[in-house]
Amino acid sequence: MRTSSLAAAVVALALAAPSVPGQDAPWTAATPDHAWSFPRDHWGHDGYRNEWWYFTGRLHDVGDPARSFGFQFTLFRIGLHTGSSDLDSAWASRNLLMGHASISDLAGKEHRFSEVLARQAPFLAEIAPFPERPVAWVRAPAGTPGRWTVDWDGDGYRLAMRDDRHGIAFDLATRPAKPLVLQGPNGFSRKAPGDERASLYFSFTRLATEGTVTLDGKTYRVRGTAWMDKEFSSNALDEGQVGWDWFSLRLRDGRDLMLYGLRRADGTFDFRSGTVVAADGTARYLQPTDWTSTASATWTSKGTGATYPARWTIAIPSEGLTLDVVPEFPDQENRSRVGGGLHYWEGAVRALDSRGIEIGEGYVELTGYGEGNRPPV
After folding, report:
1. Where are the alpha helices (DSSP H) in the chain?
2. What is the rounded distance in angstroms from the CA atom of residue 9 to the CA atom of residue 179?
3. Cα–Cα separations (whole angstroms), residue 352 to 86, 184, 258, 261, 279
4. Is residue 21 predicted with pLDDT exceeding 70?
5. Could you tell me if residue 373 is inside a domain?
6. Rounded distance, CA 31 to CA 188, Å?
7. Domain holding 306: CATH number?
8. Which tens digit of pLDDT belongs to each residue from 324-350?
9. What is the tally of helices (H) and strands (E) in the chain?
10. pLDDT higher than 50, residue 5
C-alpha cells in the first residue's frame, strides 16, 4: 500500500527544500580544504544538508558457493534545518533518517527492496555524536522488531537490517582489504566545473565481508566483497542536472573503478569524473575526457514506466581497458513508497572483456530516469 499523498508530500518537501524559516545559519558547503580526521569522519556531519553511508556487495553462500547474492544498504541523513529549535524537547528534530536496502538473488533473478524513514528523535532514529556507537540507526519498518544500523568498530563497518514483511534481512561485518580512498583531490568531488557544486567523498573499494543473509525465513552464512561510499554535501547537483549514472567495479587484476556522469534532461552528460584505484591502493583521478561510457541496451520498468540503460561499453584508454558492463538481470529497480515515490536502478553487474570473459564485478546506480524523478540533493 502506497504512503498517503499527504505524507508523501511532506517528505518530498523536506527532501527538496534548501532551507526552512527560522534557521539561523546557512548549510555548510563542501570545500577543497576539508581537514579529514579518521575515525571522526566515519561519523555524521551535522550542518551539511545531505549525507549518506552507502554499501553494495557480492556475497556467496558458504555452504553452496554457486548460490550468490547482491546487496545494497544505505542510510541517508537529510538535514531539515541548521539552527536550534524553539521547541524545548528531545523530540525536536534537525534531521530525517532514511534507510534503503535491497537483496538480489542472482540465481533466482529476484530483487527485493525495503525502506524506512524517521525523524531523528528518541526511539525512532539517531546519528550518534563521535565517538558514541552505533554511528547511525533507524527503527525497522512497522511490524518488524529492532533497528537498522551502521556502525564502525575501529577495524571496519557492521551493517544490519531486517524487514519481515518483505522477508529479507542481513547482518554483515566488513574489514578493509584495501586502504581508504579519497574520491577526488583531498576528497573534494566536483559535480560541475568550478568549486560550487561538490561533495566530500571517500570510499573503501574492497571490504572483506561475512555474516548472514535471510530470505523468507531461511538464513545463509555468506562471504564476499563489498564497496563503501561516504558522501556529505549541501550543494551537489547543478540546476540543469537531473540525475547520474554511477559505476563501482572491482576487476580481477586488483584494480577498482569509480566512475560517474551527471546527466542533463536530454540524456547527455553534463559532467563526468572518476577514480582508478590500483591493486596497491594508489588512486589516480580521471578527467572527464579520460573515459567514456556508451549504453548499448535499455530496459523499461513495468512498475514505474522509467526506461533505463541496461548495458554499457566503458573505455579508459590510459588504463588499456574496454569493458562490456552487463546487469546480472534487468529488474533491479528500487521503488520507494515514501519521499514522493522516487525510484532508481541499483543493480549487480558483471564486467566482460572484448572476448566476453568475465574480468570483474560491481554495482551500477542510475538516478533521475522517468518523469519528475530528480534526486533531491
Report:
1. 5-16
2. 42
3. 57, 27, 16, 21, 19
4. no
5. no
6. 7
7. 2.40.370.10
8. 999 999 999 999 987 667 899 999 999
9. 1, 23
10. no
Q: What are 290's three cell numbers?
A: 579520460
CA angle 205, 99, 13 (to 5 degrees): 120
Q: How does pLDDT run across 232-290, given as a tens digit for each residue?
A: 999 878 889 999 999 999 999 999 999 999 999 999 999 999 999 999 999 999 999 99
Domain span at 343: 5-366
Is the residue at 371 inside a domain?
Answer: no
Q: HSE-up of 62 (CA within 13 Å, CB side)?
A: 10
pLDDT score at 84: 56
Per residue in 350-363, pLDDT (tens digit) is 999 999 999 999 99
Q: Are 70 and 106 in contact (CB under 8 A)?
A: yes
Q: Is the peptide bond before 375 cis (omega within 30 degrees of 0)?
A: no
Q: Is residue 176 part of a domain?
A: yes
Whether residue 317 is preceded by a cis peptide bond, meaning omega within 30 degrees of 0, is no
Give the three cell numbers for residue 287.
Answer: 578527467
| Cell matching residue 202 | 571517500
> Could you give the number of structural domains in the chain?
1
Please tell me the distance from the alpha carbon of residue 356 to that of residue 336, in angstroms, as a whole number: 35
290 CB neighbour count, 10 Å cutoff: 18
